[in-house]
Specification:
Elements: H1 4-7, H2 20-23, H3 28-35, E1 41-44, H4 51-62, E2 66-70, H5 76-86, E3 92-97, H6 104-116, E4 119-125, H7 129-132, H8 135-138, E5 142-145, H9 151-167, E6 171-174, H10 178-184, H11 188-205, E7 212-215, H12 217-226, H13 228-233, H14 238-250, H15 254-266, H16 271-286, H17 292-307, H18 312-325, H19 331-346, H20 361-365, H21 404-417
Parallel strand pairs: 1-4, 1-5, 2-3, 3-4, 6-7
Length: 423
Amino acid sequence: MTPLAEILRPQSLDDYIGQQHLVGQGAVLRTLIESGNIPSMIFWGPPGIGKTTLAMIISKTLNRPFHTLSAISSGVKEVRDVINKAQEEDGAILFIDEIHRFNKAQQDSLLGAVERGTITLIGATTENPSFEVISALLSRCQVYVLREFGKEDMERLIASAVAHYATQGLKVEVRESDALMRISGGDARKLLNAVELAVNRIQKGHPTADNAVVLDNKIVTDVIQQNLAFYDKLGEMHYDIISAFIKSMRGSDPNGAVYWLARMIDGGEDPLFIARRMLIFASEDIGNANPNALLLANATFEAVSKIGYPECRINLSQCACYLACSAKSNATYMALENAMAAIRQTGDLPVPLHIRNAPTKLMKQMGYHEGYKYAHDYEGNFTPQEYLPQGLEGAKFYEPGNTPREQETRNSLRQRWGAKYGY
């Protein structure tokens, strides 16, 4: 039986719900589609907000051959098979769902075909492509950020479901939608699955003479809670659980962390996905409060890569408990964010002459490297000089946290730089 979410999948941009900043009248992506000249692109956004649907609409609108692969079940061989087939087609589109799950070799296999225009790549990811997509491929693609659905969009989806059931001779009345909104969390697929599950269960358990179904908050909540295990196995809770896992570690609760880890293991989650998220967490949420966290997370990723299930679950548990119990700091993450914000505000400022490279005589004559002080020539291997470009002198991006290790760092910086950076 075809799921309701698939039945209601839009077939054109005019029917497409949400993402009006991209596909509304005059918006950037719609303009490209209407021109018939689209670049390779990556759709980045949360699950269930129409990434696959948008790729299919683009193909249909442009009348292009459409190939789809899932990074979960496909490898280099499948990619090459599609590329070989695309060489005989005109303007083929290759859609890769969860492209962040492709390793470097798999992503490398796409480069030549994308560069030559053999295929137009459309990748979909829930992860930040800056971290999960290799730079060579990322530079050949335009990244578009898709947003989760708002309440108005979700109401439109519910209305479309009600209208569909009416065509099947079933009257569905949604008296309250708060529970559906809460359960779906901005995920259209989750919303429609919840509607379908509730309607089916009510029909089977409490059929009415006039073939009508009434949904309110209590009915929806009761039905979903009674069928939560079924709901989870559809993969709808995947991102909720990884979110709970990360937040438990960030909150220094090893019990919560290992519980959500066990839920993922029991559900057959890709262990490399779990290990990868812990590797990111070790720098983003612990950083220099405990540099060993990154070492252990990386060792765990390597161990999981070599061992696999079932034994690697022990490595995952060791790492999760260690990260949860570790001192926390996001200071290095925020330092990068602060520096990126400064770049957006000031642009690409020139490198000061004294710290430029001067490999040629001409460059030396132009003043490159002149005045540079070689730190190792000075006592303590340090001497103050300016390393930031003109206009940002004295700007402080890194603010050490309050952990013991970072306080040592702060004291060291204060001794070296005095009042320059205000440490």
